[in-house]
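<amino_acid_chain>
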Amino acid sequence: MSNQPLAPAGRVIGLSRAVLEITGALPAKDASGPKAADSPFFLIVGAGISYPQVPLAKDIERLCRQKIAQTSPDWMPPDEGSSFDRYATCMQAAYPNAEQRRAFLHGLMRSARLSAANLRLAHLLGASRLTNLVFTPNFDEMLSQALRFLGYPVIVCDHPGMAGRLDPRRDEIQVVHVHGTHWFYDLRNLPQELKKAAEPTPWMPLSLPELLKAILHHRSPLVVGYSGWEADVLMTSLRERLQHGLGSNLYWFCHRRSDLDALPGWLKGHADVRFVMADLAAPAPGAGAEPVEQALAAKHVFEKLIVALDLPAPELSQNPLGFLENHLMRHLDPADGDDDAPADPFLISSALARVRRAVEREREEEERQEERVRRAGALLDEAIGAVQRSDYETALAAAHKVDLTALAPNRRSEMEDALEQVYLGKGVLAPEMGLAACDLRLALAEVALAGLPNDLAWRTSKAKAMHGRGYCLGSLGRHEEALPAYETIIADLREAEDAPLQDRVARALVGKGAALGKLGRQEDALAAVELLLGRFENSDAPAIQESVAVALRNKVTTLGKLGRHEALLATVDLLLGRFENSDAPAIQEAVAVALRNKGVALTKLSRPEDALAAVELLLGRFENSDAQALQEHVAAALLGRGIILGELGRHEDALAAYEVLLGRFENSAAQPIQEQVAGALLNKGVILGELGRHEEALAAYEVLLSRFGGSDAPTIQEAVAKARGNKDIALRQLERG
């Protein structure tokens, strides 16, 4: 169990509340001009805003290990210590010289495409409402590139010697790379380099630590996509400032609860700090489950702020031609120059005039079309604009008004893209809204395919929309209705040979099997899996292989429910033989589920030693994973280890297994992990009672009842009931002395 204090519940808030508090603290918008320089906030943004276009530290560590394996096959850095320590060790081993490290990072970042989070942040900054100042430890220049891409000027500081030039009172956007950029070999990347960057520099007029100290005196940070390393200049400055309190709250946006748990105690324990998590998603009706924790992506944070501030779409998306004209012509002065040096030697103004004439002719042609065609286009523009503002509800309402048969053919793909963004943006959290978006996509695909029945893009879009329909219905607990959606895909694409369509068939077979399982039709669920394996088991396509692994996982689970343990073990061996070393998250989870079920099956077959070996294999592979889904299986494996050791009579070893589980997961908020914690506390008490250590057993039961006495989860309620009975027995044993 961690010694770091937990943040009080009142200071862990949802995204919606955080955005309301932040926007409420901003200066009022008036006619006097931009207010960003008067903001009580500034931004600290980390690697999370550039992922996946720029790899995270764990991915860079993996690349460095590959490099080490090529150059020094007889030695590999140990896989232990903190993630940052492993990163630094591997980086220095793979690239021992500073210029080598710079060249490596430069190769990863120079050609990276702009991430959605950086584009959303650039839009937010360009509106001059939230703030004018950004500090980042990122080596990539994606944010400044995104700002210039959208037409917003930016001042960039990428060296401590430039700190004295920055002025937070200016309205211009200013971005500070506290550790440098990938362009120069003096970037700060290793522990000793980061520590040095955090130290004041006497020979500079104003060092980075002094600049941060001055800014923190008047402003508080909004922290997005940054995990924090205590010795760097950002965390060092924050820690010093928090000793004196802040004028405005500090808002730290956490990707998951585990990221909050990893933060230092001095930060979690401070009264001026708010930790922001994703708003909880409601469970499926009738499921009896608690709200589900969702990951909080940086893109969603910025989108929520954009909607709350009611910002217009960027000029580039509202008026592309006008944007291009203004962007180019502001650099030209036709009246300047002479015959030998014309101001516009490439005749850019003439080229733009030709483009404008072509657009005007197209506009005149559109105006001759019927009124319903113009209205369809206008409503689509309204929907697209709402999507660009992340206002998905307005986008869907406008899209529903579009006459699909009147929509110009060249704009149908735009509507499909907009509706797909609505589904991806809201479908997981709001299945009813996702279902409406998918139904509209299906209607649009039918219109498009009426004229192009064999068009691959539209056939793929239709299958994706139908799969989304099945997924949303399943999320709403309507599995009988979800089943025909998957069956339609399978029937329509039975003869398809194109890779995108085969991928959709494989996914549909997985969905069908899952829906049948939810309906209690286990034999039919197995048949769906066998159909998938018969068609796709030998496919080399990564996406299809992921579906194969998930299907095998579902088969293992179904065989367990049917009590067919020998068949289950054979299926687990098949899955492990093919996918045990895969790094794909979905496949890793499938492997974890398979190993977990293998342990249960071997226990039921009275093979405890083999069951223990399966549990140890799961722990050896996934115990150090940060993925929430895998952590749940690790917790279950630790509980299983204790149960098996207890059945083998190895009571002290069983107690040790339960202590490992409690030490790591006792404070987890995830319900599946809470169930394992409750089981560990109950079993711990039982074993202590059998050993005659009734006072310790009583203490275990007291912790269980105190922590989980009010839980509504059936599994936990069962453990609580048993603990109450066992507690009475322990008390009687103590009375007898």
